């Protein structure tokens, strides 16, 4: 009976982990690999993942597990795996596509975060600069609004050559896509050159349609077609707080939006300084009596 209970617990855990990939992208390589907290589509040709996808939760952001620096081959990748020696004297750092700071929830997540399939070459200035800024911004969204789905990778068709014995490709650009599903579907994409970045994050924001055109990947095929078409062609900088500076985002006048989520039926979690009490996403729900109030 004890063994049966243990086996049952393992099955439950596996089912929970599978939920991490509700919005999995398509693969151009047909080599999708699933780990406990993220999945990836691997390209033996480029010796890199074309995407890494995971659901990022407050529990993951607030985890306390310490980095292990245990870089090693992914046991689920059968061929085309780079080695640590490839990166030596390459001029590039070993960047985590699923940010290692997002994998602090437990030992398993941290350990799998160091698989070489989750590693991609980035310039040091890029990795510690604008890319890091974007990773930190995503974590603030999770802290404020709850879980989001993250997809990240290099645009492999646009590379700057390769290095090492295993000829690891060097992406010239990287992308990140973030999907928020509660209370309504919202998505935003970013494309960044693999070099020192300048300017604000909003200057790198693009529609998901743009990234799909550049990569050949369909990022959220499981979304209803109408919703997918609606959100993937838009860029809502206001919802993602990219049009405000840090001081403005902490403005004490900001209140919770009065709008109701279209899909969830619960109150919107967004903060707004609009005098009518509704965020940009829910301006269509403003009662007639408030429509005379100026909208910011």
Secondary-structure element string: HEEEHHEHEHHEEEEEEHHHEE
CATH homologous superfamily caption of the largest domain? Extracellular Endonuclease, subunit A
State the assembly state of the protein chains: single chain
**Unreliable runs:** 1-20, 246-252, 291-296
Can you tell me the CATH architecture of the largest domain?
A: 3-Layer(aba) Sandwich
Under the CATH scheme, which class of the largest domain? Alpha Beta
Per DSSP, the total helix count is 9
Structural class: alpha+beta
Compact summary:
By secondary structure, this protein is an alpha+beta fold. The protein contains nine helices and 13 strands. It has helices at 2-18, 58-61, 84-87, 107-112, 124-127, 130-145, 208-215, 225-232, 246-249; strands spanning 32-34, 39-43, 48-56, 93-96, 119-122, 148-154, 159-163, 168-171, 173-180, 186-193, 205-206, 255-256, 271-272.
Explain what this protein looks like in three dimensions.
The chain is α+β, with helices and mostly antiparallel strands. The chain folds into two domains: 21-243, Extracellular Endonuclease, subunit A (Extracellular Endonuclease, Chain A, 3-Layer(aba) Sandwich), CATH 3.40.570; 244-296, no CATH class. Helix content is 24%, strand content 21%. It has helices at 2-18, 58-61, 84-87, 107-112, 124-127, 130-145, 208-215, 225-232, 246-249; strands spanning 32-34, 39-43, 48-56, 93-96, 119-122, 148-154, 159-163, 168-171, 173-180, 186-193, 205-206, 255-256, 271-272. It has a seven-stranded antiparallel sheet with strand order 1-2-3-6-9-10-11. Strands 4-5 form a two-stranded antiparallel sheet. A hairpin with a 4-residue loop joins strand 7 and strand 8 (168-171). The chain starts with a helix and ends in a 24-residue tail after the last strand.
């Amino acid at each position: 009976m004890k063994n049966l209970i243990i086996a049952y617990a393992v099955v439950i855990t596996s089912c929970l982990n599978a939920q991490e990939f509700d919005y999995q992208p398509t693969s151009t390589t047909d080599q999708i690999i699933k780990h406990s907290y993220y999945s990836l589509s691997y390209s033996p040709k480029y010796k890199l993942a074309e995407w890494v996808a995971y659901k990022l939760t407050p529990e993951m952001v607030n985890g306390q597990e310490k980095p292990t620096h245990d870089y090693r081959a992914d046991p689920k990748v059968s061929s085309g795996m780079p080695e640590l020696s490839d990166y030596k004297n390459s001029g590039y750092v070993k960047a985590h596509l699923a940010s290692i700071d997002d994998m602090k929830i437990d030992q398993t997540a941290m350990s799998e975060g160091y698989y070489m399939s989750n590693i991609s070459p980035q310039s040091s200035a890029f990795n510690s600069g604008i890319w890091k800024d974007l990773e930190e911004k995503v974590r603030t969204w999770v802290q404020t609004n709850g879980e989001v789905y993250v997809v990240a990778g290099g645009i492999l068709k646009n590379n700057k050559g390769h290095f090492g014995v295993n000829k690891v490709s060097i992406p010239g650009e990287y992308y990140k896509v973030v999907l928020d599903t509660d209370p309504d579907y919202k998505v935003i994409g970013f494309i960044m050159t693999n070099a020192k970045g300048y300017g604000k994050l909003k200057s790198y924001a693009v529609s998901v349609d743009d990234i799909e055109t550049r990569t050949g990947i369909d990022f959220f095929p499981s979304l209803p077609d109408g919703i997918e078409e609606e959100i993937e062609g838009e860029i809502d900088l206001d919802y993602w707080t990219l049009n405000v500076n840090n001081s403005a985002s902490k403005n004490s006048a900001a209140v919770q939006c009065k709008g109701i989520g279209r899909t969830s039926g619960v109150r919107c979690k967004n903060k707004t300084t609009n005098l009518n009490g509704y965020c940009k996403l829910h301006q269509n729900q403003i009662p007639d009596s408030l429509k005379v109030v100026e909208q910011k």
